[in-house]
Amino acid sequence: MTKTPRAAPLLPLLLLFCLFGLTSCQQENMEPPQEPPQPLALTMSLQYYDKLGNYLEVPTLSGGEPTEDLALISQELDSYAQELQARVDALNTSNEPGFLRCLCLPVSGERYLSLALFEYSEQADNLLTEGPALHSWVYDQEEGRLVTEDEALAMAETTLDEIFKQILRQHTSPPRSPEELDLLGFLLSKEGTPTFFLNAWVPVTDGQFSYLYTWSQGELTRLYTYDLPFFSLNLDRFDPPLYHQWYSDWNSQPPGGFDDPPFNEYTIPKLLAEEAMGLQSTWHPAPEVLARHTAGPYTLLLILQDSGVHVGGFGNLALGVWDSRDQTNGDLWTLGGDYGLCASWEEDGAYYLLCANTSAGSGWESSSGTGWFRFDETGLEQLTTLPDLAREALPELPDDAQLFDDTYEYDWHDDHKILPVPGGMELYTRNEDYNAARPGTRQWDYTGFVPLSRNAAEYAPAAQFLRERLWARELEGDDYASFFGPYLHISEVSAVENGWRFGIVNRDWDSNGFPSQFTLTVTQSGQGWTILEDIPVSGN
Predict the structure, then answer these.
(1) How would residue 473 be classed by pLDDT, with cut points 50, 70 and 90?
(2) CA 350, CA 346: separation in Å to the nearest integer?
(3) Bridge partner residues of 367 (DSSP)
(4) Where are the alpha helices (DSSP H) in 422-498?
(5) pTM for this structure?
């Protein structure tokens, strides 16, 4: 008899299947092992140094165990970076002078990460009238929180009152001592030693002065402009390097050079002032644009830049040609002095520009020289030869080399003064009887009109009549007119029926209410020239 095979038991197989399935499910539900967080570090999110003196350094945090204080620091840094960038953009799209700097002072130790951002602007570059701004954060990585000012003072075993008493003892600026003390912020060294930044306010007649100090381990140090304790703080080094790494002397610059600011009608004149005169807007007001003309890819700019010191001339003229193709200033020309003037006109498809300047000391004014230029789409040409019609009008002129000298080489300029007018120049000779101690005496006598354009000779008699009338009018209102005069500058000329309309600029002496700009119309009648119309354009 044949036996039928028995079926294998099912229970052991079911148990194996369940065990295998349970193990598989547990493996699927297990999370992969987490990597430890990266160490807390600073990386630069905003690092910018431009040719106009704006320096911005703002970092961002990366790594570290997420905490509420770390999130707060990151948010404040991001907001501050956006604010600084907006302020620099506003400076670069305005004609306001100034710069903005925010320097990063980072110190990383095993336990503490310290960061200070030191901000100042041109309006407070001497750290006196407004004081700097300093934002600081010190983060304890072991406890995951910010260190407070009180904790830092306790670590230093001192108080603000004790530091203030030390400032009072060491302050050496008579006659007054500080009356108020602000704790701007603090840093911890890599070893955990606090350094405090303090601002002491000293009262003066019109307000108060700000004096910046640092205090560390009982030592109080007075800081001056840019005199930050970079080396004593043992700051972190970055690549690309921060300001504290590359600033070693006045000629220093970032390894890759300074950034170009956005090129616009406001920044290009500032760049011209820096390139032509070495007068960066960091130290000087925004230049005044006296003339601007575009031909082809070129734009000619003539600026008047206040140098800030009399030995450099209170008003320096600089001429440059901006090439829109490579965004650079090509031909550069400068003429120093105290009172730069210019006149321009167009003729035969070209733009002509005549410039003159003078320097004055103790009431004695002398010419700094003259520059005459022709400009068109091919570029700029400096002219040094008078046309025949000029010598026909005034034969006693010196040779061309003397007239157009701008190196102070010839004595002729000491006793002559040139005032540019559209199409020519007015020549004045020093009055031998002039005495700076006697107000009202004339320093200059009119010698004649020198036409440089064929059209200029037509209105020369009207211009001279106008000059004499305005000169007398100024003497009546201001005895000091003789100091620099004649200083009224004819800027524009246009023909009208039986006469001429003149645009007049009075650059300096308008404190007596005389308009700083106005137009005058001069007409010819049976009795000669008369002033028909006097229209102020702007005044005080």
Answers:
(1) low
(2) 6
(3) 358
(4) 456-477, 481-484
(5) 0.73
